[in-house]
Amino acid sequence: MENKIDYFNRAQKAQEMKRLIEQSDLFDSQVGGMLDVFSPSERDQIQSIVDLGCGPAGTLRKAAREYPDKQFLGVDNAPDMLDFARAETMTSKITNVEFLAADLRKLPFPLRTQSFDLVYARLVFGFLQRNFYPYFVEEMVRILRPGGWVLWWDCDFSPFTSSPSLAKLYSLGKLAFFRSGVGHQIDALHITSPLLGIFQGAGLEEVRQRIQIIDCSYGTSFTEACFRDNKDLFSQLKGYCQKMGVVNEAPHKELEVTEEEYDYLVSRLDEEMHRQDFVVRFVFIATIGRKPAI
C-alpha cells in the first residue's frame, strides 16, 4: 500500500532543515532523549533502534553518543537530510549509527522482519494519511523483535495560545492538512487519540500514552526558539495552504483567507509572540506499546 501525501515544504530544503534542527533541540530539552520514557531495565534490553522519519537525525545522534553500545538506524526520504546527518555523524566520530534512504509511505518497509528492539517515530503526521495509520503501525510491529517496543511521539497541531494570529495560522494549517487526508477532524486533527486502539489492534501489549506539555510562553527560555520555529513553519506552509485551497482569491469568510491576509498573519507573529502576556503551550503525546515475547 502506498500513501500519497507529499511533504508540504520539500522545496525549501535548507530553511526546513534549519527549522527541524532547532525544533529537535527544543523538543529534546523538554521531553528528554529517545530512550528516556523507559525504565533502566527496559533500556538495557533495547540494543537495536530504528528512527522512522529521522530528518537531520539530531535526536538519533544524541542517543547514539549517550549509548555507544547500542546500534541505531535512521530512515528518511529526503537525501539532503540524510547527507547532513551522515556528515554530522562522521564529524562527531559516532560509529554506531547508519542511515537508509526510503519512502516510508510505500509498504512494506525495506527493513527485515524482527530486526529492532525499538521502533521510534516522532512528528510524522504531516506525511501520513488518516487511513494509513493502521498499516504504518502493522509495519512497525513487523520489524520489531518479540519483546521490543514501539514509541510514537506526535501532536494534534493545536497549541493553546493567546496570540490571535498564531491561533488562526494553526487553524488554517489544520484545514490544509485535513483536506490533504491528514487527521480525523478539522478543529483538532486528533492524530494521537486513535493510536491507542491502533496499537492494541496490531497486537501490542502494555499500551499506554504519556502527555508532555511544552510551555514556550513569554519569559520562558524557549520563547525565541518557538517564535523562529513558527515563523519559519508558516512562511513555508503558505504554498501548501494555497495548494489545498485554504489560501485563495475568493476565500470562505470563516475558514479561508487571501494571500494578503495570510502574509499579514505571519507578519503579526513578531509583535504578538513578544508581548509580556504572550502564552503558548504545546501538547505532545507519546504512544507506547510492547510486542509480546515468544
Please give the structural blueprint:
Layout: H1 13-31, H2 40-45, E1 48-52, H3 58-66, E2 71-76, H4 79-91, E3 97-101, E4 116-122, H5 133-142, E5 144-155, E6 160-161, H6 164-179, H7 195-201, E7 205-215, H8 223-243, H9 259-272, E8 280-290
Parallel strand pairs: 1-2, 1-4, 2-3, 4-5
Antiparallel strand pairs: 5-8, 6-8, 7-8
Protein name: Methyltransferase domain-containing protein
Organism: Thermosporothrix sp. COM3
Domain Methyltransferase: 49-148
What does this structure look like?
The chain has 294 residues and is α/β, with parallel strands linked by helices. The chain has one domain (13-290): Rossmann fold. 39% of the residues lie in helices and 20% in strands. The protein has nine helices and eight strands. Strands 1, 2, 3, 4, 5, 6, 7 and 8 form an eight-stranded mixed sheet that branches. α6 (164-179) crosses α9 (259-272) and α8 runs antiparallel to α9 (259-272). The model has no long low-confidence stretch (mean pLDDT 91).
State the CATH topology. Answer: Rossmann fold
* CATH class group: Alpha Beta
Which structural class best describes the helix and strand composition?
A: alpha/beta
Radius of gyration over all CA atoms, rounded: 19 Å
Beta strand count: 8
Helix-strand pattern, N to C? Answer: HHEHEHEEHEEHHEHHE
Oligomer state of the chains in this structure = single chain
Largest sheet: 8 strands, mixed
Number of domains: 1
Q: Which descriptor suits the 3D outline?
A: globular
Q: What share of residues is helical?
A: 25-40%
Q: Enumerate how many helices there are, as a single number.
A: 9
InterPro entries: Methyltransf_25 (IPR041698), SAM-dependent_MTases_sf (IPR029063)
Protein name: Methyltransferase domain-containing protein
Domain Methyltransferase: 49-148
Organism: Thermosporothrix sp. COM3
